[in-house]
Amino acid sequence: MKRTWGLLITMGALILLFQSCSIKLKSESIPPEMKTINVSFFENDAPLVVGNLSQLFTEALKERIRSTTNLSIVTREGDASLSGSITDYRYGPISIQATQANKAPIAGASALTITVKVKFNYDANKKISFDRSFTKSLNYTGDLSSQEQTLIQAINKQLIDDIFNAAFNNW
Q1: Which domain covers residue 70, as residue numbers?
Q2: Is 37 domain-assigned?
Q3: How many Å apart are CA 129 and CA 138, to the nearest integer?
Q4: What is the tens place of the pLDDT at every residue in 98-147?
Q5: Does residue 48 fall inside a structural domain?
Q6: Cα–Cα distances in Å, from 125 out to 75, 121, 129, 164?
Q7: Are 86 and 55 spatial neighbours (Cβ–Cβ below 8 Å)?
Q8: Across the strands, what pairs with 98?
Q9: Is 16 contained in some domain?
Q10: pTM of the model
Q11: What are the backbone dihedrals phi and psi of residue 88, each rounded to the nearest 5 degrees, phi first?
Q12: pLDDT tens digits, 32-86
């Protein structure tokens, strides 16, 4: 009987502990007075242009803000703004695979790299602002064209995570 009461008291204490704790994942470091943000279209200024890269990146960035903050995205001037451009898109070998004599070497693995220059401003006093480049790359093997869109989506996610953290989490 004492063991049952002990177990019930322990479980009750744990329930109270978890009810009193709260974890806030949305908008953790966003100042309460920041309500709106303008996200400009990120033009592709890279020497090598992929037709849908600007659209994919811009929309993925907006979706991240919509899904993880309480900010409203506006087309006019907002409390904060995110703007920039895609400044580099490149791919190339990162390792060479051995070949038979008299044959040209081939890539054992390659990397796709995307760089985005981003400017973030919040309020007239520039409390939180930056103007910097973010670069991410992913390694791949085989033909780029068959996996390019999947690689772009994965790199965009990594870039957006870094941009989001720099803008809203002050890391």
Answers
A1: 42-169
A2: no
A3: 28
A4: 556 666 555 578 999 999 999 999 875 656 789 999 999 999 988 899 99
A5: yes
A6: 21, 9, 9, 20
A7: no
A8: none
A9: no
A10: 0.76
A11: -150, 140
A12: 888 999 999 999 999 998 989 999 999 999 999 999 999 999 999 999 999 999 9
